[in-house]
Amino acid sequence: MSGDLSLDINIKEPRWDQSTFLGRAQHFFFVTDPRNILKSSESLEDARVTVEKYSLGVVKPGLTEDELWRAKYIYDSAFHPDTGEKMVVVGRMSAQVPMNMTITGCMLTFYRTTPAVVFWQWVNQSFNAVVNYSNRSGDAALTTNQLAAAYISATTGAVVTALGLKSLAKRLPAVMSRFVPFFAVAAANCINIPFMRQRELKYGIPVTDEEGNRLGESVTAAKSGIIQVVVSRIGMAVPAMAIPPVIMNALEKKAFMKRFPVLNAPVQVGLVGLCLVFATPLCCALFPQKSSMAVSSLETDLQERILHSSPHTTTVFFNKGL
Predict the structure, then answer these.
(1) What pLDDT, on the 0 to 100 scale, is given for residue 138?
(2) 202 CB-near residues (< 8 Å, 6+ apart)
(3) What share of the chain is helix, strand, coil (3-state, %, to 5)?
(4) Once rounded to an integer, what is the mean pLDDT over residues 17-39?
(5) Burial class (CB in 10 A: 0-12, 13-18, 19+), 130
(6) Once rounded to an integer, what is the mean pLDDT over residues 12-32?
(7) How many C-beta neighbours within 10 Å does residue 63 have?
(8) Of 249, 320, 246, 239, nearest to 273 (Cα)?
(9) Mean of the pLDDT values across residues 5-11?
């Protein structure tokens, strides 16, 4: 060992207790911090090297515990937990606030015409497809054809759903029609996420014992993880797409907003951003990222393999994705 920092720090797990909502919230406030997307490639590489070397028992001279945890959270914000690959910038959870505040703000502003609905729903679902693929569970890669098919089916299904809901909005009061983008996004998440992660539903995701030893792949675990992610994503959209429409409906009646209608979009984007700063980490924290499931709830053949290879294991763990 080199350096003075103890090697007893478990940086494979988050710094805070993940069995509590508060601990998970603290963890995700760091992971989803929008400032992380401003980190240079050199900073990301330095964080990766620091974390990986520490995991191997090598400590950079002068490294403090706070610096180690800072490096871990920079690393976690940019690299996939299963594959270790660097995620594209817009696919990282730290990009959720700036990207979603822009897209959602425009969806809530430009919702009155069909071309606008189609365009912004397509932009939103294309962004979601990148996020869903980047934050998938497991380490198996999709082929280009599989990825293209998943993207087309996910975005098409989501946009068609949005258009169907828009047609219903014509029969609703003006204030209610403002909520159509939210219902469209909620329905689209139920389509986009399973489509972009369809390989997991077909072949399963890795499940491990408490020490991280891989025990097999489970479709049941994949379904559980995807359901949790869908609920979290819809939860993220609730404040950002439910609160600003009410405020904007009141503001647009004011003389000031009538005189300067150009402020509509910036104000809407700002309101959405304020909501997302808190909604993103808090909704990511609804469920532990490292989820667990009783062995008895897994597929029968996998139960038998685990009983044979690890008879004392009663609970398995898996990365549910984000």
Answers:
(1) 66
(2) 219
(3) 65, 5, 25
(4) 90
(5) buried
(6) 89
(7) 17
(8) 239
(9) 82
Dihedral sign, Cα of residue 131, residue 246, residue 282, residue 221: negative
Residue type at 140? A
CB 316, CB 209: distance < 8 Å: yes
Q: What angle do CA 145, 199, 227 make, to 5 degrees?
A: 135
| H-helix or E-strand spanning residue 244 | helix 219-251
Please report where in the chains the tokens 């919230």 appear, as a residue: 25
**Element containing residue 41 per DSSP (H, E):** helix 41-55
Burial of residue 96, with CB atoms counted within 10 A of its CB: 0-12 exposed, 13-18 middle, 19 or more buried: buried
Q: What type of residue sits at position 147?
A: L
What pTM, to 2 d.p., does this model score? 0.76
Rounded Cα distance between 37 and 35, Å, is: 5
> Counting beta carbons within 10 angstroms of the beta carbon of residue 77, is it exposed (0 to 12), middle (13 to 18) or buried (19 or more)?
buried
Per residue in 100-123, pLDDT (tens digit) is 888 877 877 776 777 887 888 888
Spatial separation of the C-alpha atoms in residues 107 and 244, rounded to whole Å:
12
Of all helices (H) and strands (E), which one includes residue 290? strand 290-294
